[in-house]
Write a structure and sequence with these properties.
Elements lengths: L4 E2 L7 E6 L4 H7 L2 H9 L9 E5 L5 E7 L16 H4 L3 E5 L6 H11 L14 E4 L6 H19 L7 H14 L3 E6 L2 H4 L3 H7 L7 E7 L6 E6 L1 E5 L8 H4 L7 H15 L5 E11 L11 E3 L5 E3 L7 H14 L4 E6 L3 H7 L5 E3 L3 H13 L5 E2 L17 E2 L8 H10 L7 E6 L3 E2 L9 E2 L4 H12 L1
Parallel strand pairs: 1-6, 2-4, 2-5, 5-6, 9-11, 9-14, 10-11, 13-17, 14-18, 15-16
Antiparallel strand pairs: 3-4, 7-8, 8-11, 12-13, 15-18, 19-20
Helix pairs in contact: 4-5, 5-10, 8-11, 10-15, 11-14, 13-15
This protein binds ligand BES, manganese (II) ion and zinc ion.
Length: 460
């Protein structure tokens, strides 16, 4: 994919002038009489998102007007310029004046020009942006390409994105950056003590696996990323409804996002020893499927009773987290599309995060806001921990009362983390249900950009 950023064509690029309700009268006065008449005739009123292409006397495009929220507006969508990528005719453009945040505007422009083109030629025109002075083209390209990787992985349907294909994507990423790669497949998971990953994945003809990638100087701080890689979630025997199952190709969204984050971290050569673990499985239905009220051992040693086979994400993450935790990482981060309850609580655009480390939580919140990659802290509410009790095993994977589903999932995972200096858990959605500026409908990169900023600040 050629970068949407054009670093050479600044002189010939068509100017985009950002206007708000309050700056419009002055900007309008500065237009030539014909352009002013053209804007008025089109009823242009500088409403947020309004776009008007102004013709030159010879019929060429002279410039573009694009409306933004006023400084005083209750909410300013810093990604609004991302809509331009889908509105403009083919060509190269530049910012003629400052949007609210030029870096985020340029990033949104790139994120907004993403198309999923694996199965048919992308429609839409070739629109490029000459970057404003002082923006780091390599850095923005790195972020936009990582987001595109996450989106491509999520958008690819399960028939072409099973555990093996997800492993291949991780292997290709490892090879591009000189990282080491390994994979534990099928019954070998039992031998190597990953009983929960095996239990969830054993119904599918596509063997479960634990994908591992390692990169960087072993003397640097240890940062470990764990991503839920459920390549399709039918719910298992506690089968989902058809509407509940429809989007479940995206259930490897956590894996997609940790790979995107890893790509940024390695691309920027941050001073970390990076480790990525992805339990990759298909939660399928067959005669060898795990069943409600089955009990399994776990890598950590505690036994787990299956209250619901649809709470599979926490099971595969539990073994991967326990494994990650054994080497006492400085920072352990996991991401997964774990609960419908997270979406009920905060909606699809605002994933909850959990950590006991207050300083880390403050950094996460600040980086999320700065990158327009929103995240919201929720509590590891200890009084609910007893809801995980089982009458026959150490712990049950699905509390029966149905309350606080995202919190009880986080509390379940917390049982498997003991030695990591800090642990951060993200319950993401990884999907944009209806397009917004900079966020086309479909698979989404969620949390990875915010965490990349955090890691860059700590280890850049
Ligand atoms: N992958 C789903 C969670 C999910 C559903 C995320 C819809 C985003 C949208 C997960 O494996 C799941 O099914 N969770 C159950 C847990 C329950 C059985 C305790 C859920 O949220 O209903
Ligand atoms: Mn499920
Ligand atoms: Zn799932």
């Amino acid at each position: 994919m050629p970068s949407v950023f054009d670093t050479a064509a600044t002189a010939t690029a068509r100017p985009i002038t950002f206007v708000t309700k309050s700056t419009w009268p002055t900007i309008r006065d500065g237009l030539g009489p014909q352009a002013r008449q053209f804007a008025d005739a089109n009823g242009f009123a500088a409403k947020p998102g309004a776009c008007l292409v102004l013709p030159a006397p010879d019929g060429q495009i002279a410039q573009v007007l694009f409306g933004l929220e006023d400084d005083a507006a209750k909410h300013r969508d810093l990604f609004r310029p991302g809509a331009l990528a889908g509105l403009l005719p083919a060509g190269t453009y530049r910012f003629a004046n400052q949007p609210h945040d030029a870096r985020l505007a340029a990033l949104a422009f790139a994120l907004g020009s993403y198309r999923f083109s694996r199965y048919r030629k992308a429609d839409g025109s070739e629109v490029r942006l000459a970057l404003p002075d002082g923006t780091d083209a390599a850095e923005l390209t790195r972020i936009a390409e990582a987001a595109a990787l996450a989106r491509d992985l999520v958008n690819t349907p399960s028939n072409d994105m099973g555990p093996a294909e997800l492993a291949l994507a991780a292997q290709q990423l490892a090879e591009r950056h000189g990282a080491s790669f390994s994979c534990i497949v099928g019954d070998e998971l039992v031998q190597q003590n990953f009983p929960l990953i095996h239990a969830v994945g054993m119904a599918s003809t596509r063997a479960p696996r634990l994908i591992e990638l390692s990169w960087g100087d072993p003397a640097h701080p240890k940062v470990t990323l764990v991503g839920k890689g459920v390549c399709f979630d039918s719910g298992g025997l506690d089968l989902k409804t058809s509407s509940g199952m429809l989007l479940m190709k995206k259930d490897m969204g956590g894996a997609a996002n940790v790979l995107a984050l890893a790509q940024m971290v390695m691309g920027a050569k941050l001073k970390v020893r990076l480790r990525v673990l992805i339990p990759a499985v298909e939660n399928a239905v067959s005669g060898s499927a795990f069943r409600p009220l089955d009990v399994f051992p776990s890598r950590k040693g505690v036994t787990v009773e299956i209250g619901n086979t649809d709470a599979e994400g926490r099971l595969v993450l539990a073994d991967a987290l326990a494994f990650a935790d054994e080497e006492k990482p400085d920072l352990l981060i996991d991401m997964g599309t774990l609960t419908g309850a997270a979406r009920v609580a905060l909606g699809p655009e605002l994933p909850p995060f959990y950590t006991q480390d207050d300083a880390l939580a403050a950094e996460v919140a600040r980086c999320a806001a700065a990158e327009n990659d929103p995240l919201w802290r929720m509590p590891l509410w200890a009084p609910y921990d007893s809801w995980l009790d089982s009458k026959v095993a150490t712990i049950n994977n699905a509390p029966s009362n149905g309350f606080a589903g995202s919190i009880t999932c986080a509390l379940f995972l917390q049982r498997f983390v003991e030695h990591a200096k800090s642990w951060l858990h993200l319950d993401i959605y990884a999907w944009t249900p209806s397009a917004k500026p900079g966020r086309p409908e479909g698979g989404e990169c969620q949390g990875a950009r915010a965490l990349y900023k955090l890691l860059s600040e700590r280890y850049g």
